TrEMBL record:
Keywords: Membrane, Transferase, Transmembrane, Transmembrane helix. This is CDP-alcohol phosphatidyltransferase. One of its GO terms (cellular component) is membrane. The lineage of its organism: Bacteria, Pseudomonadati, Bacteroidota, Sphingobacteriia, Sphingobacteriales. It holds the Pfam family CDP-OH_P_transf.
Length: 313
């Protein structure tokens, strides 16, 4: 009997370890994700691991649910919108599960990272199109597509930079193995090694990702100088004092990467749907989230400049 109790205690003690192992880092995780999406994602990941479903299959499935949610936001009936909200939440749970599954099963790939990064873009493209159609059907001018497209472009920039800064933070605190940080020079070399005749799909996907990575790098010149200097000096084994100091200075910026991504925008999207004022979603994206993006980029550049000068002087 005592052996059974000890065994049960050991199993209970192991559960938090499994949960922690499924996360990228507590530094970059948002509270809503820790409390809600990650536990659901872990359950989905555990089931998928048992039946042999791959992370990429989970990601692709999330795209279908996210796009379906966007389609349902076209309709003005609140009960249909609520179904769309539930589908979008489930899509995000799947999006959480694919990364957790990849980390738990050590089944990571660049294609998986690319699919995961673009999945949200598919969801929100469907959402923006649905909301624009909903507003024009309600009598709004076709000019509503202008803020709809501007908000969509804003979302791409916000998502790209938030994801990039998270991976930079993970690179400094966990090294290359604990991060998904890519650079355009390495991607270009990989792209050049492929042939269109033999690797058409992989080369097509990598071409899009290469442009995405170049966008991230163009918007972070000081950060690029810092990364180049760090990699030249230390390779992947960063000194402990640099890791500690960078983490302390950079960690406060992680909350801004969370604000401009999924949870905050979706909470307000649901609010606008409940009060049937969906035009506010575009205004919120452009007038609220964009200034946060600008502040986030400026602060990250300031941090990067500080550590670059510290290393070079």
């Amino acid at each position: 009997m005592e052996e059974i109790l000890v065994d049960n205690k050991n199993k209970e003690a192991a559960k938090p370890d499994i949960f922690e192992a499924s996360l990228k880092s507590n530094d970059t995780e948002e509270r809503i994700d820790i409390w809600f999406y990650r536990p659901i994602g872990l359950r989905i990941a555990t089931i998928c691991a048992k039946v042999g479903i791959t992370p990429n299959a989970v990601t692709i499935t999330s795209i279908f649910f996210g796009v379906a949610a966007g389609v349902l936001f076209y309709y003005p009936a609140l009960w249909i919108n609520v179904i769309g909200m539930l589908l979008l939440m489930f899509a995000n749970s799947l999006d959480s599960a694919d990364g957790q599954l990849a980390r738990l099963t050590n089944n990571k790939s660049r294609l998986g990272r690319i699919l995961d990064g673009f999945a949200g873009d598919f969801w929100f493209a469907a959402i923006h199109i649905a909301l624009c159609l909903r507003l024009t059907d309600a009598g709004w001018s076709a000019w509503v597509w202008l803020p709809g497209v501007l908000a969509g472009v804003s979302h791409v920039f916000q998502s790209a930079m938030a994801d990039y800064y998270r991976n930079v933070h993970l690179y400094f605190i966990k090294g290359k193995a604990g991060s998904e940080l890519d650079n355009s020079a390495e991607l270009q070399r990989e792209f050049d090694r492929m042939t269109w005749s033999q690797h058409f799909f992989d080369k097509f996907v990598l071409n899009g990702y290469l442009g995405y990575t170049r966008l991230q790098e163009r918007l972070s010149p000081n950060l690029q100088r810092l990364l180049k200097e760090v990699k030249a000096r230390f390779k992947d084994d960063l000194p402990a004092n640099l890791v500690t100091e960078f983490r302390a200075m950079n960690k406060p910026l992680m909350k801004y990467t969370n604000i401009v991504q999924f949870n905050t925008r979706v909470i307000f999207l649901f609010l606008w749907l409940f009060i049937d004022q969906v035009w506010l979603y575009f205004a919120f994206d452009i007038l609220v989230l964009n200034p946060i993006l600008i502040y986030m980029c400026r602060r990250q550049e300031k941090v990067s400049k500080h550590f670059y000068h510290q290393l070079t002087t």
